[in-house]
Amino acid sequence: MGIDPNFERNREQVGEEHDVAVWGPVDPPEQLGIRGTHVAVDFDICLADGACLEDCPVDVFEWVDTPGHGESEIKANPTDEEQCIDCMLCVDVCPVDAIDVDPGRENRI
Ligand code: SF4
């Protein structure tokens, strides 16, 4: 199962880390939640494939360390989500559907 595209309705923002919102629940290091709002990555699904970092034309993503997480010990954080041009390449290439891009989400919160 991939990222919940309606997470802003189904989860609560519990803070901010690496310049983006954190949507809970979180219980580090095993449970890290969803990161970002316009460009959102479910850290509990991300397995550090890296296709999003390679393919994003405007370099939205950067690796962050997540030691102790079961899927991978680095994650693709949408640090520069404000640069996103909504091309949807990252959504298409992610092998585990961990990414959801929605430019209207900010206005629905
Ligand atoms: S939708 Fe396109 S521009 Fe936006 S983060 Fe994904 S790959 Fe980058």
Automatic annotation (TrEMBL):
Task: Output the Gene3D superfamilies linked to this UniProt entry.
Answer: 3.30.70.20
Keyword annotations for this protein, in alphabetical order, are: 3Fe-4S, 4Fe-4S, Electron transport, Iron, Iron-sulfur, Metal-binding, Transport, Zinc
Which residues make up the binding site for [4Fe-4S] cluster? 56, 84, 87, 90
* InterPro entries per UniProt: 4Fe4S_Fe-S-bd, 4Fe4S_Fe_S_CS, Fd_Zn-bd, Fe-S_Ferredoxin
- For this protein, what is any one GO molecular function term? 4 iron, 4 sulfur cluster binding
> Which Pfam families does this entry report, sorted A to Z?
Fer4
- Chain coiled-coil ranges: none
Question: What is written in the cofactor note of this entry?
Answer: Binds 1 [4Fe-4S] cluster. Binds 1 [3Fe-4S] cluster.
Specify whether Iron is a keyword of the entry: yes
Cofactor section: [4Fe-4S] cluster; [3Fe-4S] cluster; Zn(2+)
Q: What function does the entry list?
A: Ferredoxins are iron-sulfur proteins that transfer electrons in a wide variety of metabolic reactions.
The protein here is known as Zinc-containing ferredoxin
What species is given as this protein's source?
Answer: Halorubrum tibetense
